[in-house]
Amino acid sequence: LSLQEGASVTQRYADAEKRYQAIKEEVKGRATALDEAVSQSAQFHDKMDPLLETLEGAVQRLRQPPPVAAEVEKIREQLAEHRAQGLELDKLLPSFSALCARGEELIGRADEAVSVRSRLLRLRSLWDEIRQRAEEREGKLNDVLDLAGKFWADVAALLSTLRDSQDIVKDLEDPGVDPSLIKQQIEVLRNDVLSHHATVDTVNNAAAELLESSPGDEAGNLRDQLDQLNQSWGSLLLKTQERQKLLEAALQQVLQRIRKLDRCLV
């Protein structure tokens, strides 16, 4: 080869070598990127699996929560336990946010889009459902706590009042001959005993509402207290009605005697 031809061959060889090295680097870069993508995908799925399992367990517990208790202290315990579980879930928020961000990155890759999008939708769906159900559960526990607190206070006060009323009926003197005194006794029965009827109805209505939220064995003590209240009220009502009839009959007799006496004096 002439010197000129040799230089041309050398140049072509050098150009070919550059193209080869460029292709080699490009292939190497793509291989590295692919390895990194595979690694990122594997890490994403490895971290996704335990988080999905944890969230699925949490949502199942919230879908089928234990019955709300009927006693104040037990409801407070349930509320404290529920809030503690919420704090544990809050600790998962950084992992949840990181996986969502990584998932959005992986969705941009055609080979990962379908799988990642499906799992990401599942993750977000579980997270949103947990938040919603947890909020509803806490709201229900707080509502029942308020209702139970008022109910038990009202029951205690009403039972005490009924015992006092029983003493009033028991201690009433026998009907005398003074119509004004007999009328006073009748008014005592109406004002101090029969006036409790509305309060008894209110407490029973509150108990019915509480039983709707606390079915089953959780409301056993509530039912016992309600039975005691209604039995006490029924007994008092019967004695009061009997006493009222006796007083009204005595009043009529006294008034008749007075009218007869008045006619005799005319």
TrEMBL record:
<dbReference type="InterPro" id="IPR002017">
    <property type="entry name" value="Spectrin_repeat"/>
</dbReference>
<protein>
    <recommendedName>
        <fullName>Dystonin</fullName>
    </recommendedName>
</protein>
<keyword id="KW-0106">Calcium</keyword>
<dbReference type="InterPro" id="IPR018159">
    <property type="entry name" value="Spectrin/alpha-actinin"/>
</dbReference>
<dbReference type="GO" id="GO:0005886">
    <property type="term" value="C:plasma membrane"/>
</dbReference>
<keyword id="KW-0206">Cytoskeleton</keyword>
<dbReference type="InterPro" id="IPR050774">
    <property type="entry name" value="KCMF1/Dystrophin"/>
</dbReference>
<keyword id="KW-0963">Cytoplasm</keyword>
<dbReference type="Pfam" id="PF00435">
    <property type="entry name" value="Spectrin"/>
</dbReference>
